[in-house]
Hints:
The protein folds into two domains: about 1-130, no CATH class; about 135-169, no CATH class.
Amino acid sequence: MxxxxxxxxxxxxxxxxxxxxxxxxxxxxxxxxxxxxxPVHVQLQVNNTSxxxxxxxxxxxxxxxxxxxxxxxxxxxxxxxxxxxxAFRTLATEDLLETALILDKDDIDITDRIFEQIVLAxxxxxxxxxxxxxxxxxxxxxxxxxxxxxxxxxxxxRLAALxxxxxxx
Length: 169
Ligand SMILES: [Zn+2]
Ligand SMILES: [Zn+2]
């Protein structure tokens, strides 16, 4: 995923727009059963603010994930705002050296930077839907697909004893 800032580098106020698409499927997302299902689409605007290149845009892609409740795989869409600062090493101030993407030449490969943004935005747990009922802890049925009867007929033994005592009354 490459950009070139030659056009905007020379004067403050210059800007350039990029629309990039790349296949990230070879990247390891570090979580089992999590992979890229669609190419990564990055749209960004690079503005030369004199201090640095201010970058604003969006990152879009789709992942194949496994639901932590029902264990089914599902498509997880990522739509992420992307804001960044890029600065040439020779011109970068100390704070920029710490936070910005440091450039040594006009051609920049931003693949790793974009991948980093995606990884940082991943949730702790993937859930297919807020309504996901998960698996029955008793019979293992996917309760989104098969309503099982495990919940019925299970009575607290103390209440059962009470019910029996009352019926003898
Ligand atoms: Zn689920
Ligand atoms: Zn059940």
